[in-house]
């Protein structure tokens, strides 16, 4: 048994809906490794339960797994808005979300996240207690600046893939645009006194960020 398998075996199992999404994503969807998966999904759920957010904004839906995990911790009457750029995934996402008793708490928006936020869409016309960034790695710094006004002081932002399978410190990826985008994001956070943050070596790197001013 590997350490990763041990961690999975000793973490609360994913429910039947999430298990089905995991299986179907790996069978039918390209780049299935993008799925948050069991352990990270339980971590997202746990963080959401600790924060008890009234509103959650997710940038990057993929097949809906992480949205359902985050929605588990919503406060009574809470809502999660998730934005996905790839319109080819829309039917899959809607079908997956519809399987869950949390479906009425989740709103899917198809489109470019930066455009939707910067156009001050009614969708984003209120504060979010929790934001999850898991979209185009080249745009992470822009996403951070875009969601900053939407998060109250004391609110939280989560950023996925911030270790990028170790590429973040590998000179072999010095010219890879996604790696460079993540390096820029990590360096920006390090110097930005609007936030406090910690990188967790969970899966592909998960950064927990708290807005302090």
Count of DSSP E strands? 7
Strand order of the largest sheet: 3-2-1-4-5-7-6
Question: Roughly what fraction of the amino acids lie in strands?
Answer: 15-25%
Mean pLDDT: 96
Which of globular, elongated, flat, extended, rod-shaped describes the shape?
globular
Point out poorly predicted stretches: none
Tally of contiguous helical segments: 8
**Distance N to C terminus:** 45 Å
Sum this structure up briefly:
Helix content is 37%, strand content 17%. The chain contains eight helices and seven strands; from the N terminus they run αααβαβαβαβαβαββ.
Write up this protein.
This protein is α/β, with parallel strands linked by helices. It is built from eight helices and seven strands. It has a seven-stranded mixed sheet, sandwiched between helices. α3 runs parallel beside α4. The longest helix has 15 residues. It is globular and about 40 Å long.
Give a topology summary:
Layout: H1 3-9, H2 16-28, H3 38-51, E1 55-59, H4 65-71, E2 79-84, H5 90-98, E3 106-110, H6 113-118, E4 130-133, H7 140-147, E5 156-160, H8 177-191, E6 195-200, E7 206-211
Parallel strand pairs: 1-2, 1-4, 2-3, 4-5
Antiparallel strand pairs: 5-7, 6-7
Helix pairs in contact: 3-4
Task: Spell out the key features of this protein.
213 residues; alpha/beta; 7-stranded mixed sheet; 8 helices; 17% strand
